Amino acid sequence: MIVEANKGGKVVTLNKDDYFSKIEEKLNDTEMYEQVTNPINNNSISEFTEKLFKQNNIKQSLKLQLNSIEDLPRIRGQPKLHKVNHSMRLITCSRNTIQSSISTFAFSFIKELRTTIDNSMNNASEFVTKITKINMEEDENLASLDVQDMFTNIPLTSAVDLVINRIENSTTFNESTLSKTDLKKLLILSFSNNSTEFNKKIYKQKRNLPMGNCLSPILADLYLDDYISKHLSKVNTEQKLFRYVGNILIITKMTHIELNKYVEELNQIKSNIGFTTEFEKNSKVNFLDTTLTKNTNDNKIDVR
To answer: pTM (2 decimals)?
Structure first.
């Protein structure tokens, strides 16, 4: 069967049995998933939207829309070609499902919060534009940090609390009639029916953020922004740290040994967030499907 790879926009051919086996291996992680038989519970969404309607916070047409779909999201896998054994990243396909309408509604209030996030880029093109303007010092090195299994390791409650703490930066929210309590309930409900279907079986993700929900990327971005601010002060310097989702490039004066020790210390912090690292080799490091090279002639960074 033909599937899209996790990075690089590549398409690969996989044995069907291997594809199913690798996905089910992830779903059989009882710390993260449980198999269920009756996952649908629309009562909480129905009750909450009825409350918003009676308070004149939403129109009847929107109330009906938020309760109109009962289909479950489905799981698909993207092989990680850059990882040993090509393990699978699970993607939850949530479009036109029980989660999609209420998640999209919640997203409309929080999407402006991206403006509160530091050193984060929207795409590889933005990264290339920024990195080629940087001047490096002779004793600086290039390295990358990758957050391991980012979405499934970010605590939902903490991420939602960060949204509420920053929500006054959202014009859309400020101009609405919703309270912070309403928005918090809305966000939690967007993840409450966190069940997916794969190979005629239904699984419920027990905690954290599912990939595929439109809210997950921005909640993950906000959480990592806060995490980096609190714990990565040693490398979190303007024009020295660049982040795209869970991929971080740093420009550092640390040696390879010093960086490895630093990452070990980061990974001992009491949290679910863990990092892997890659240090430059022959003045080169790979990042976001590009190869970055230190140009010692002009102290710039070449991108290929």
So the answer is: 0.85
Q: Which amino acid is it at 233?
A: S
Q: Where are the domains of the chain?
A: 2-303
Phi–psi pair at 51, nearest 5 degrees: -60, -45
Sheet (strand 275-279) strand order: 241-244, 247-252, 141-147, 275-279
Q: In the chain, which ranges are continuous DSSP H helix?
A: 16-27, 43-54, 60-66, 100-110, 124-131, 156-166, 171-174, 180-192, 216-231, 256-266
Span 86-113, pLDDT tens digits: 677 888 887 887 788 999 999 999 999 9
Residues 278-288, buried b or exposed e (16+ Cβ, 10 A)? bbbeeeebebb
Q: Render 264-304 in DSSP notation, one character per residue.
A: HHHTTSSSS--EEEEE-BTTEEEETTEEEEEETTTTEEEE-
- For 303, half-sphere exposure in the C-beta direction (CA atoms, 13 angstrom radius) is 15
